[in-house]
Design goal:
The protein is α/β, with parallel strands linked by helices. It has 3 domains: about 200 residues, Helicase, Ruva Protein, domain 3, CATH 1.10.8; about 60 residues, no CATH class; about 70 residues, Beta-grasp domain (Ubiquitin-like (UB roll), Roll). The chain is built from 12 helices and 14 strands. Strands 1, 2, 3, 4, 5, 6 and 7 form a 7-stranded mixed sheet that branches. Strands 11-10-14-12-13 form a 5-stranded mixed sheet. The longest helix has 21 residues.
Length: about 400
């Protein structure tokens, strides 16, 4: 799974990336601090199945604390976009190409309203962050339209030869991670299933680009800097103005501070928690810092960073977690107990899980065994969250 981090400069994009991945990156209020994409790994929280079997898991990737399993997802932070990027303003929108295969985009918005449309510092609360949501939608629409335009003549010629619109557009847009189902739904809603592409108007083409973005390129919004003046007031306004989006109040700076204090042994803190425990004597400046963080967590429920990541994967994309292991064989050949957990898209079946592990497993699939119940299932058996599955293969 790939999660893209997008937004205009100076909203805290790179800070949010660091809060997710714990990878130090250059951060400053200077616009366009990020030029080359930052790539790293973050972890979504899953209720571990180790307690179901009375064992302690030993993950090969990620980690587990008190049956709270953290599974890896890939994060990509790209350069900032500004209004008019599709016309070449700022650094243009070529960086969006890095996000072609992203399953979901996290849009980092400075909810305090302290940066203008191009990321320059302004008086806190003087800029309306709703403008940023609108401009990103527009830039993504033009980006998709531009990709269509690049091969429009070829699409039109093939359309004139009675090739199906759906098949033509799948071939053109699959590289953006846009699935056939989303393309089918878009064509149907616009009444363009049968109308030859060679006969589409410019307006119809743009409507298609806009709707396929809405359906197939999902966006969630991190209302970052919520702890600053005007932050929560603007967050409440955004929720009312954009009910179609998942919007979560966040403080990426707070999450970095909490993870840093935990790494240095000052506190016990698990990402996403509403509180932490001080385990090391602090000096006065450190106490003041911890008091501020305690107050922030009590006010907002969490820093919002882990909450947004979890919600993006499970509540928004509706992915679910499946473990590999047998009822009497929970360990791998190296002795790691429940070593791996996979995140699968909705409606995944046993054969889909086998293929996610290795394509050869799908080819040699015989049956799947549910470690919780001991029941055997065929290839088309639908899986559910927290299943533990063992496979039987042929030669």
């Amino acid at each position: 799974m790939l999660i893209g981090v997008v937004g205009k400069p100076s909203t805290g994009k790179s800070t949010f990336f660091q809060a997710l991945t714990s990878i130090p990156v250059e951060r400053s209020a200077r616009p366009f601090t990020t030029i080359k994409p930052n790539r790293g790994v973050a972890y979504v929280e899953v209720e571990c199945v180790d307690k179901d079997f009375g064992v302690q898991c030993n993950p090969r990737t990620g980690f587990c604390i008190n049956s709270r399993r953290f599974a890896p997802v890939e994060i990509l932070d790209v350069a900032g976009l500004v209004p008019g990027a599709h016309e070449g303003k700022g650094l243009g929108n070529k960086f969006l190409d890095d996000l072609r295969q992203a399953d979901v985009l996290i849009h980092i918005v400075d909810v305090s309203g302290s940066t203008n449309e191009v990321g320059e510092a302004v008086a806190t609360g003087s800029y309306d962050p709703a403008n940023d949501i609108k401009f990103l939608e527009e830039e993504l629409n033009y980006w998709i339209e531009g990709i269509l335009d690049a091969n429009w003549q070829k699409l039109a010629r093939e359309s004139a030869l009675n090739k199906k619109n759906e098949d033509l557009l799948v071939g053109q847009l699959s590289g953006l991670g846009l699935k056939r189902g989303a393309i089918q739904k878009t064509l149907k809603q616009l009444g363009l299933e049968e109308k030859k592409i060679s006969e589409w108007t410019e307006e119809e083409k743009f409507k298609f680009a806009r709707l396929i973005r809405e359906i197939g390129k999902q966006i969630v919004i991190a209302a970052n800097k919520c702890d600053l003046s005007n932050g929560m007031e603007n967050y409440e306004k955004l929720k009312k103005q954009f009910p179609q989006y998942l919007i979560v109040p966040c403080s990426a700076e707070a999450e970095i501070a909490l993870k840093g204090a935990a790494k240095n042994g000052f506190i016990d803190y698990i990402p996403g928690d509403v509180e932490f425990k001080i385990i090391k004597e602090l000096n006065e400046p450190q106490k003041k810092a911890m008091d501020l963080l305690t107050g922030l967590l009590k006010k907002f429920g969490s820093s919002g960073v882990q909450k947004l990541l979890n919600a993006s994967v499970f509540d928004f994309l509706h992915y679910f977690a499946v473990f590999a292991g047998g009822r009497n064989k929970l360990a791998d050949k190296d002795g790691n107990i429940l070593p791996d957990v996979w995140l699968l898209p909705p409606n995944s079946t046993a054969i889909d899980f086998a293929a996610a592990i290795h394509t050869e497993f799908a080819k040699k699939f015989i049956k799947a065994v549910d470690a919780h119940t001991g029941m055997t299932h065929g290839a088309d058996h639908p899986l559910k969250h927290r299943d533990v599955i063992e496979f039987m293969f042929g030669r």
